[in-house]
Structure formats: C-alpha cells, structure tokens
Amino acid sequence: MHFLLSGLSIIVIDLLLASDNALVIAMAVRSLPRRERRIGSAGGAAVAVILRIALTYFAARLLTIEYVQIAGGLFILWIALKVLVDASDAPDAVPAPKRFYQAIWYIVVADLTMSTDNILAIAGASKGHLGLIVFGLALSIPFVVFSSNLLADLMNRYPATIYLGAAILGKVGGEMILTDPFIVRTLHPADIWRYIIEGVLAVGVVIAGKLICAARHRRAGPDRLPVR
Q: For the chain, which residues make up each domain, given as ranges?
C-alpha cells in the first residue's frame, strides 16, 4: 500500500510539474515534420530522463550550488529568443538533420536545467526507492511527449501562440535566475520585485524576438516572413 501511494504521489507530481518542460519541447520541435517531431520529442525526453535518474541523488546539492540556476535561466531565455527568431525562417531554410539534432540538444539541456523541482519532489516521494525513482521519471516521458506534440500542433496552427510560449519561458528563465542562491544571498529580492522582473523578461523576450525577426525580414526580402 505504501508503495502504491508513493507511486500515485509521483504520478500527481509529474502532472503538476512537467508543463514547463512540455512547453520547451513543443517550441524546440515545432519546425520539424510531424514524424521527426514525435521522434525528436520522445528521444530528447528519454535522454533527459536517463540523465535525471543519474542526477536524482544529487538534486538537493544542485539547488545549493551558486550560478547553476543563473546559467539555466539564461539558457531558457536564449531558447525562447532563438525559437522566435527561427520561426521567421522559411521551412527549408535550415537543413532537416541540423534542425532535428538541434531540437534534441535544446530538449535535453533545457529539461535538465528546469527539472530540479521535479527531481526533488520525486526523490522525496520515493523515499530513496530506486524503483520508484525510475518509475516516476520514466512516467514523465509519455506525458511530456503527448502534451508537447499537442502544443507544437497548436503553435503551427496558430503561429501567434509562439509568442505566448516565449513569454512563459521568459518568465520561467527569470524565476530560475532570481532563485539562484547567489542572487538570493546578495540581493534578497522581494516577491514584488521578482514578479516585476519576471514580467519584464517575459515581455522583453517577445519584443526582442519581434525586432530581430523584423530586421532579418528586411535583410532577406519578402520570401521569409516572420510569424504573426
């Protein structure tokens, strides 16, 4: 019974904490063909989960290392901006293999930098039971792949939603940076300032992406239109 309750807790944790990861994967694979999108999202999530299992025992330590969350937050901001800029390219502007492996790289690194809370929660719920840890982290693969493919389809059907996704990632990146031990220790940011800075970063990513897209469109001519 204890094992089953712990397993149920892990399922709930996966559902609650995996949405950000699904959004990153959706934005990373949205420009791929549908078949490659599914392979890329599943492959990237699987590699990330394998690495997560190895990192679970060190998850608590990760949160105490200064600059780790700053680096992760900056990487998330970069992904959000890069996806917006790439959205202005014509579908065949980047070779398909390069897009595929680039998407895998984005997924693995972003998933690891964003998953500390998920790792810690699962480690706590499993009480150190390796079987439950593997079960909980592996369970996130089908959920994240399914939801990320739905989000990618939505972004392809309604391109303007890419900006919403980029804004959310901007907020997530800001939250990671502001909760880094170094920032907390040196600046002690109040909650109101955290909300303001996260909002500024969310809007800033979108504005910067639109400006870069517009500049690239002016240089490239009418054949490469930015998303709207």
A: 2-220
Q: How far apart are CA 68 and CA 107, in angstroms?
A: 18
Q: What is the pLDDT along the chain (228 residues), one digit of tens a residue?
A: 566 666 666 666 665 566 677 787 888 787 778 788 888 888 887 787 777 777 665 665 665 678 888 887 898 888 888 878 876 655 445 455 566 777 777 777 777 666 666 666 666 666 667 677 677 767 766 777 777 788 888 887 887 888 888 898 888 889 889 988 899 999 999 999 999 999 999 999 999 988 988 887 787 665 544 444
Q: What is the pTM of this model?
A: 0.71
DSSP 120: H
Tell me how far apart the alpha carbons of residues 174 and 201 are, in angstroms, rounded to a whole number. 6
Distance between CA atoms of residues 31 and 89, nearest Å: 10
Please enumerate in sequence order all residues whose Cβ is within 8 A of that of 89, keeping only pairs 6 or more positions apart, or say none.
31, 224
State the Cα–Cα distance between residues 203 and 174, nearest whole angstrom: 11
In the chain, the amino acid numbered 113 is: T
Residue 66 has which token pair?
A: 């200064």
Tally helices (H) and strands (E) across the chain.
11, 0
Nearest partner of 108 among 72, 133, 143, 153, judged by Cα: 72
122 Cβ contact partners less than 8 Å away, ≥ 6 residues apart: 10, 13, 14, 56, 132, 133, 136, 137
Helix, strand, or coil here: 160?
coil
- How far apart CA 162 and CA 160 sit, in angstroms, is 5
